[in-house]
Structure to design on (526 residues):
């Protein structure tokens, strides 16, 4: 296992951005070779799902107190529409592109979604494996499942399962060698999107880490795919009405779908090879039988008001520019940070203990001084963080008692946020920015190379929380994948690889581009 971890560490160092020297990529946009954004299987029958247009739903603060909806056609339609479906189209001149509820680096969408269902009236007459086609909002049949095997596999367990895969070439087309990182961010965003969508209807989502990559590839029907457009298995998710129960997923090994012969449609006719991505993919492969870690879910938070959750989910957008003016109240800021804590939904959807902490650049929070702050998302990690970070940090306790927020330094940190975020003003012009710090080499040495993926999933899920909480607060957010890794570490006084920055983020007042026209998500189906 150690040689795989070494391979992951080499990849991570190799794909760091530095001022004046970025991770290896083509360096230009080869539009002729851009892979298509929508996967389809030639010849596969597709079941169209209805568009659930009614946005009335509980607010984000009420999730966890919602009665469970029945598993029927409407449930399946809304679950997929609000998690992996389209949210809008944008048009500028003759160019038109789709946005989705699950955000993606560069809007390139390497993540594919699958669902394993029992017999559901209006969807399927017997258990089956389906690929979700977001452009058509439909389910492509990939294979039928033996009813007895399905009953044994889900006995006492979840009524349905979802799987995620990645097509790395969709990201490497633009981002080169660093693309593997972005694919894993996107998986984390997708996990969060699925968890929110399910929670609106009173369902819970939990990862099933015991299912390794080999078995998952078989379950999702992608094991035979080869070449640059091949799908790589990411994670299996189990969905329960209400609170999840005890369940042994060992019987999933016998749940082999009788696959149809349909092959995925080509996404392009030329792709630049990136051997280092192939190498790190192998080094990060997940073995069978990874033990699950119970989520750190505490008492349910008090029911709070706010806009309907579906309105926020459907209306979420990635900010392109910040106005350098709009701020947040301290109360709103604390609420947003509180939502990222591991005892809150949707953090329970992730495998493993929380290992990502938030370094915060506070610019415009009314009632809170400018400066750099730290939020240890696991209180037990604070001593380790104190030993790793700069001796110059003050560690002042600020904010409410239930939030372990610490001030590291005082003063305007906006120029620093912009500098470490590849010089992008969007990091300095918001209300605050974030560098997500992961407990790194010790976790990889202890858990194996696959934990590299899991750490990125955790950052993506935190990003999804910040996206929706920003919309709830009347502002917007966006992920920042381009940052100078070691510049952040130097700023915080980090040495070695005990902690590593994996994702930057920013929240604030977005500047809308009046040149863009917004079209309904599914206008093309009317």
């Amino acid at each position: 296992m150690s040689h795989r971890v070494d391979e992951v560490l080499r990849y991570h160092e190799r794909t760091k951005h530095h001022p004046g020297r970025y991770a290896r990529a083509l360096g230009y946009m080869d539009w002729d070779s851009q892979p298509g954004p929508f996967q389809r299987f030639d010849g596969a029958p597709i079941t169209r799902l209805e568009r659930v247009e009614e946005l009335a739903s509980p607010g984000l603060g009420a999730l966890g107190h919602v009665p469970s909806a029945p598993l029927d056609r409407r449930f399946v339609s809304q679950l997929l529409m609000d998690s992996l479906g389209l949210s809008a189209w944008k048009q500028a001149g003759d160019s038109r592109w789709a946005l989705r509820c699950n955000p993606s680096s560069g809007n390139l969408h390497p993540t594919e979604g699958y669902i394993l269902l029992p017999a559901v009236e209006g969807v399927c007459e017997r258990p089956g494996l389906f690929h979700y086609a977001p452009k058509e909002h439909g389910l492509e049949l990939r294979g039928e499942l033996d009813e007895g095997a399905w009953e044994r596999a889900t006995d006492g367990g979840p009524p349905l399962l979802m799987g995620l895969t990645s097509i790395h070439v969709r990201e490497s087309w633009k981002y080169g060698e660093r693309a593997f990182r972005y694919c894993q961010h996107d998986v984390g965003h997708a996990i969060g999107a699925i968890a929110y969508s399910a929670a609106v209807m009173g369902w819970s989502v939990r990862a099933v880490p015991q299912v390794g990559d080999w078995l998952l590839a078989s379950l999702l029907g992608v094991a035979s795919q080869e070449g640059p457009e091949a799908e790589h298995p990411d994670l299996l998710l189990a969905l329960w009405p209400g609170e999840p129960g005890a369940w042994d997923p060992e019987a999933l090994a016998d749940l082999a779908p009788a696959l149809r012969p349909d092959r995925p449609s080509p996404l392009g006719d030329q792709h630049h090879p990136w051997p280092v991505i192939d190498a790190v993919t192998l080094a990060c492969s997940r073995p069978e039988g990874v033990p699950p870690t119970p989520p750190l879910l505490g008492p349910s938070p008090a029911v709070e008001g706010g806009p309907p959750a579906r309105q926020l989910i459907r209306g979420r957008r990635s900010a392109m520019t910040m106005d350098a003016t709009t701020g947040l109240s301290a109360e709103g800021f604390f609420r947003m940070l509180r939502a990222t804590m591991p005892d809150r939904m949707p953090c329970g959807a992730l495998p493993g203990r929380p290992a990502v902490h938030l370094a915060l650049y506070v610019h415009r929070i009314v009632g809170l001084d400018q400066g750099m702050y730290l939020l240890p998302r696991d209180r037990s990690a604070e001593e380790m963080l104190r030993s790793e970070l700069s001796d110059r940090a003050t560690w002042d306790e600020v904010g409410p008692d239930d939030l372990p927020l610490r001030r590291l330094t005082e003063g305007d940190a906006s120029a620093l946020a912009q500098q470490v975020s590849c010089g992008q003003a969007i990091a300095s012009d918001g209300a605050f920015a974030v560098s997500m710090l992961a407990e790194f080499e010790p976790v990889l040495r202890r858990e194996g190379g696959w934990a590299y993926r899991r750490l990125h999933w955790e950052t993506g899920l935190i990003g999804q929380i910040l996206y929706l909480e920003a919309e709830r607060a009347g502002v917007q957010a966006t992920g920042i994948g381009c940052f100078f890794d070691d510049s952040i570490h130097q700023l915080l006084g980090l040495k070695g690889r005990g902690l590593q920055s994996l994702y930057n983020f920013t929240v604030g007042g977005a500047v809308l581009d009046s040149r863009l026209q917004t079209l309904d998500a599914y206008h093309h189906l009317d």
In short: The chain has two domains: 59-86+99-283, 315-508. The CA atoms of residues 188 and 457 lie 4 Å apart.
